[in-house]
Task: structure prediction
Amino acid sequence: MPDLVCHLLPGLAAAGPGDNNNPAATDPSFNSGTEPKTDLERETAYIFRPVALKKVAHHPDGVLWPRQHPGGSAQRPVVLLEVQMHADRSFNRRLGAETFRLLQQHEEVAHLQVLVLLAHRRLALGFSQPRLLRRFLEHDVTWVDLAALARRADLDPLLALLTLPVQKEPDLGPCVQRILTVRPDLIELIVPILSERFQGLSPSQLMATLGISKDFWRHTRAFQDILAEGRQQGVEQGRQAGRQEGRQLGQEEGRRRQAGALALRQLERRCGSLDVPTSSRIEALSLPQLEELALALLDFRGAQDLQTWLESLEP
Result:
């Protein structure tokens, strides 16, 4: 009975004795879950076996729903979004499964587009796909190669923003500057993207490392948060320094010393090693002067800029 499918699907032929593609016919020990019991059963091309499909929770990176047409339209479809930055040999099959699961659970979806952002197209996402799945992947999925996109000149700032996770490090600073020159408001999105890529660096250290002027972001909420965090950190560090060095130093002196030590570490990243007289001069600065230095050093390009700034303090 299972071989009736060969008469219903064009291009299929029932297998006979000795069919090399039919292990049930050629190997009596073949175990596919339903053992053939008779010679006639061993000669069939198909066996019938019920399958229970498990319920699997899918968590796409995002689904974008059109504001005016929740089910999508030809001009504004629902967009299933996936971002894949690492190799995953189960990705292609999972993408197919979650796409059709979305259609199953959201009957209002009439127009759907699948969009995948890739670090690059060389990622191993699965091999030997069935033809049905290959057709879906080739014709119904839009693949965006972020590495190739990053090499394009004159990108729209929003598109350039997408390339930040894959930009080569020497190109990252110039790319951020080009984005901010056109769209300074995007600094609110740039800071978390870079913080994710360079974990362990504070936003101010990121900007200093990439050579981004404070003029681009001093009026943003991110900048104000950094200042507030810095003040809070200064209070806490001052308390710790005060306890360690004695109550007589006071909280203000502890904050000043911590700020001086932090400024010296940041200056060494920007200007290289400092000589003893310069280091001593910085350590002697007042707390307000050190706070101003922490902002000014974002624009320093070398030791000469530091000397010019110190000379500006002289009466």
